[in-house]
Design brief:
Distance between the termini: 81 Å
Largest sheet: 5 strands, parallel
Strand content: 5-15%
Low-confidence stretches: 210-216
Mean pLDDT: 86
Helix content: 55-70%
């Protein structure tokens, strides 16, 4: 949200510019108006603004003097000039005072729109650059904070994220050193860095900060005394929404990966159920740690790997028993058991009857 102060000694011009700025974009709002430079500075003592659109010739204090004071007192602000005077001297002095543009009255709507677009872009670029420089300087010395974010997102610990976000805000605020307007850009860059770090682990996570909605509190009048609280709250809301989105994406990735791993295990067991099998070999087949593999399988299927192997072997044993002339010991060998007595015990535990009794019951 870009907050604009309009300064002109003509009420009609102030009203016209206010309407134009309001209609131009949802991201720009007129926070205040003043009839001359003195009143503008009095207003700025109480309220926050990002951009000043000012006339040149006004009583008490002209626009050029106002721009000088704004540059000195409010260095984050940008200024534009709207003037009735096609005077090279005025335009030259405005540019030397770093005014973004010099527009002649009567104001052409297209020219003003282009100027507002340019001003907004310039302001955002400069703030993003300043925030990026802070991240580049400070982050290497504070890697532990980023590692905490990565660990909590990877482990889906959403319940502890609110505290971590508040602690991260305090870190970013310390970096901003009183330039609270940078908290927005810093919070975006922090989340982008988290995404980049997560992507190093071959995880494809997409997050677009342009999708954020309702992150800023839409109050056009922002008092100086509430500036810190406002930008802190906006940054917290942005990081909350970003972390929630990343945890949701990570949960989807984890669920998808879990399904793929478990499906691969099932396919292998279905093909090799009759062979000697151990958990370490199976873990190597699916390229995972044995303990992690077993935990994953239990979470996905609600049964252990061995219970699944046994169930698969018993299902095939029943099929052989009912659809072939194989002897019990031959069936035992076919499904991976060398000890026929052990096989018989497992079969009875699974079906409630010994192999021969089961066959008699099914064929009677």
């Amino acid at each position: 949200m870009i907050r604009v102060l309009i300064v002109d000694d003509s009420m009609l011009i102030r009203t016209s510019l206010s309407k134009h700025v309001t209609d131009y974009s949802d991201t720009m709002v007129v926070s205040g108006t003043a009839s001359n430079g003195v009143k503008a500075l009095e207003w700025l003592e109480l309220y926050y603004a990002d951009l000043c659109i000012t006339d040149i010739r006004m009583p008490l204090m002209d626009g050029l003097a106002l721009i000088e004071q704004i540059n000195r007192l409010y260095p984050w602000m940008k200024c534009m000039v709207v003037s009735s005077y096609d005077d090279f001297h005025y335009a030259q002095r405005s540019m030397k005072l770093f005014a973004l543009d010099y527009i002649l009255k009567p104001v052409d709507s297209r020219a003003l729109n282009e100027s507002l677009f340019s001003a907004t872009s310039r302001m955002m670029q400069e703030r993003n650059h300043e925030a990026a420089q802070l991240i580049l300087r400070k982050l290497p010395l504070n890697r532990a904070w980023m590692e905490r974010w990565i660990e909590q997102i990877q482990t889906l610990r959403s319940e502890t994220m609110p505290l971590l976000i508040v602690e991260t805000l305090e870190l970013l605020e310390d970096w901003a050193a009183g330039s609270y307007y940078l908290l927005n850009a810093l919070s975006i860059l922090w989340l982008q860095t988290v995404v980049e770090e997560l992507s190093k682990g071959k995880l494809r996570i997409e997050w677009d900060e342009d999708e954020d909605e309702d992150l800023e509190l839409l109050d056009p009048m922002l008092t100086i005394s509430s500036t810190r609280g406002y930008f802190r709250l906006c940054a917290v809301r942005r990081m909350e929404q970003g972390s929630n989105r990343l945890i949701t994406a990570m949960r989807g990735i984890r669920d998808n990966q879990s399904t793929k791993v478990v499906d691969a295990m099932k396919r292998y067991i279905q093909v090799h159920y009759g062979e000697k099998m151990n958990l370490q070999d199976l873990a190597e087949r699916v390229s995972h740690n044995k303990t992690y593999m077993c935990t994953l399988f239990k979470q996905e299927t609600n049964m252990t790997v061995w219970h699944y192997i046994v169930a698969e072997r018993m299902n095939h044993s029943r099929d052989f028993l009912l659809n072939s002339s194989l002897k019990v010991y031959e069936i035992a060998n076919r499904v991976g058991y060398e000890d026929v007595d052990y096989f018989t015990r497992i079969f009875k535990k699974h079906f409630g009857l010994s192999p021969l009794d089961y066959k008699k019951r099914m064929e009677s």
